[in-house]
Design a protein that fits this description.
The chain is an alpha/beta fold. It has one domain: RbsD-like domain (RbsD-like fold), CATH 3.40.1650.10. The radius of gyration is 14 Å and the shape is globular. The two termini are 23 Å apart.
């Protein structure tokens, strides 16, 4: 256990978050997402849902607010303008750490292609529909350095 870190975050995910560079992307996916098929690096957290994992990751990962659309979800098939409860969960979690950042939704197949290029995919046990989000890592202006 470490102070200030949600214990839901496994060591391999912490390593990936630290290794990611500015502009790298990570996907947090629901239980129906083809994570094993598309992931270059896969982390499984099957015992937790989107809300818990997303909040834990966002507590550590700076979002890239220097470019448009650092947070991307998946559009509803056949109704691309519709927002599902999982979309609201994503937007709420993001608003806690980056109030100016909006969640953009993109076509499912485009999302899959982006996920295949992402630094890592985190597979959760989320059962809600459309509980998938792509996050782009930003930078920290003045990182805290222990002296």
């Amino acid at each position: 256990m470490l102070i200030g870190l949600d214990p839901i975050l496994p060591p391999d995910l912490l390593s990936h978050l630290r290794a990611m560079g500015h502009g790298d992307e990570i996907v947090i996916a629901d239980g129906s997402f083809p994570a094993t098929t598309v992931a270059r690096r896969l982390v499984r957290i099957d015992g937790a849902g989107l809300r818990r994992v997303l909040r834990a990751v966002l507590a550590l990962l700076p979002l890239d607010e220097s470019e448009p659309d650092p947070v991307i979800g998946m559009q509803v098939i056949g109704d691309p303008g519709k927002w599902m409860p999982m979309h609201a969960e994503i937007a709420e979690a993001v608003a806690r750490v980056a109030p100016a950042v909006e969640t953009k939704l993109i076509d499912r197949h485009v999302f899959y292609r982006r996920a295949a290029e992402a630094f890592a995919v985190v597979a959760t046990g989320e059962t809600g529909f459309y509980g998938n989000v792509l996050l782009r890592k930003g930078t920290i202006e003045n990182p805290v350095v222990a002296g």
